[in-house]
Amino acid sequence: MKINLFNYTITIKKKKRKQAKKSYGKFGLHAPVAPDGYRHRWIRKETVQSRNITKSGFTLVKASQYRQSFPVIKKGKFKGCIGLGGLVLGRISENFFNERTL
Asked: pLDDT of 79-91, one tens digit each?
């Protein structure tokens, strides 16, 4: 903001706050290795609906399918799935993936 006072101009600036970065702990956004013929993709929870996910070729990845520890959603619609910070891990076949990207 500039203020003119007689023959002087005074400029006032606000300090910008640094936004806090989200911390995903020790997991980060690492996904388990997908089986042969499949790919893993992170999907937003808001966009996933039970009807749309099957039509798009995705299946949700359950944490019980892997021995390593991954972040698990503990309650709600996606209970038992690998998920983190509003994202859910989905699996799609290579053929379907290649068709969608063309």
From this structure: 999 998 888 998 9
Residue 78 three-state SS: coil
Domain locations in the chain?
A: 34-102
Q: What is the C-alpha separation between 85 and 83, in angstroms, rounded?
A: 7
Residue 81 makes CB contacts below 8 A (sequence gap 6+) with 60, 61, 62, 63, 72, 73, 88, 89
What are the structure tokens assigned to 101, written together?
């990207």
Q: pTM of the entire structure?
A: 0.66
